[in-house]
Amino acid sequence: MSTTVSARATRRRRVAATLLAVASLAGAAVLGSCGVTADDGAAATARPAEAAVRVIDGRTAPNPTQAANGPVLPVGPPPVPLAVDLTPIADPLTVRFSRPPRAGLLFDLDSGEVLWRRNPTRVLPMASITKIMTAILADERVPPGGKVRITRQAVTTGGSKVGLLPLGKRVGVSAMLHGLLLTSGNDAATALAQRVSGTTKQFVARMNARAEAMHLQCTRFASPSGLVDAGNHSCAYDLAALARALLDRPRLARIVARKTAVLPFPIKGGKLYLSNHNPLLKQDYPGTLGIKTGYTRLSGKCLVAAAEKGGRRLGVVLLGSPDIGAQSIKLLDRGFAIKRS
Asked: 3-class secondary structure for the chain?
């Protein structure tokens, strides 16, 4: 009897801690499971819900719950492992692509309602989408007006770069965040990580601790940049939660919505000129709120994006897409066309 009571008390404490952890996400925190689902994201408008499966560290992730207008993203992990749920869940939208993404999600940023999904719990490399978490932690830890020292490790980081970082100098954090999120600078990611935690290794540990605190159960970080695919992965549900977390931070929300930026920078001429890689901004899609692109050979083209129309905010996640611009626009257009009561 005492063992049973203790177990129940433990579960109650766990539920209470979960509610506190996700309160800031206002019901839109997204959970994914670390496994490949059978969902092909194609023709059927009603299909079995993704079953809860075993994930990293033996945890399980809940399926979206069913609401009047369709499935809604859950707000916290279950206190005990879930049983397989075969209840049919119909997404409000059926969207077909001749060459679909490997995984994707269309969702309401405020209500958490899922409008369309394809393999949303499939674990895939996320490339530079990684930088969303890097930006969140840097925004928390480096105040406006703070400086970031440019180390040799930052300057020699490979892949996409801001490319003009002055070795040994201290650069304003605003310029570094712009370089991180607009041009996807791996060098900026390294410098910010060292500014926050001293070393990139310690920063990655902080990234993974935050992912665990957010209950991102199929997300694992291996670097602050996403340059290396090995050990760096996520799923569409988890990336939707990260999108919401970034947009809840005003400084970052302003940055990712910018198509271009001209910033003070300690180089010849004193200015840094940056352009955003986001295809929605490049194509002037109305109401684009921005967020982040990513690409490696293994991940393919990836996008986490958001837009607002008529007071409604929709988010889209595409992993391994042949055309992140066209596919995100098609999904957002269809989502905004749904008439809400």
From this structure: CHHHHHHHHHHHHHHHHHHHHHHHHCCCCCCCCCCCCCCCCCCCCCEECCCCCECHHHCECCCCEEECCEEECCCCCCCCCCCCCCCEECCCCCCCCCCCCCEEEEEECCCCEEEEEECCCCCEECHHHHHHHHHHHHHHHCCCCCEEECCHHHHCCCCCCCCCCCCCCEEEHHHHHHHHHCCCCHHHHHHHHHHHHCCHHHHHHHHHHHHHHCCCCCCECCCCCCCCCCCCEECHHHHHHHHHHHHCCHHHHHHHCCCEEEEECCCCCCEEEEECCCHHHHCCCCCEEEEEEEEECCCEEEEEEEEEECCEEEEEEEEEECCHHHHHHHHHHHHHHCCCC
